[in-house]
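Extended Data, panel c. Modelled sequence:
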Amino acid sequence: MTTNTQQSSNTEQKIAQEALRKAYTRETEALVAEINQQASCITDINDIWALSDYLNSQRYNIEGKYDFQEPTSVFVLAQLVKEKWLTLDELNGLTPSTKAKVAALAKMS
C-alpha cells in the first residue's frame, strides 16, 4: 500500500529530476555556445591546450553536479537556482518546506 508520504516523495523526486533535466540542458547548451566562441579564437597550440583544460574542468563540474541522489537533491537544486540555471518557479509542486529550504540555501554565499 502506498502512503501519502511515499506519493509526495515520488512526486517531489519527479519534479526535482525534471528540474535537473532543464538545468542540465540550459547549462550544456550555454557551454557549447561558449566553446564554439572560444574555438573560433584559437591561434596557436597553447590556445588548444587551454581549451582542453577548460573542457576537462567543465566536464568534471557538470558530471558531479548533475549526479542526482535523493538525499542531496535540495542542495543541488539550491546551487542551480543560485547559478541561475533554474528559477524557484520551476520548482512548483515541491512541498512548501522543501521549496523554502531550496530558496534559503540558494541565498547563502
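The chain has one domain: 4-107. This feature is highlighted in the accompanying rendering.
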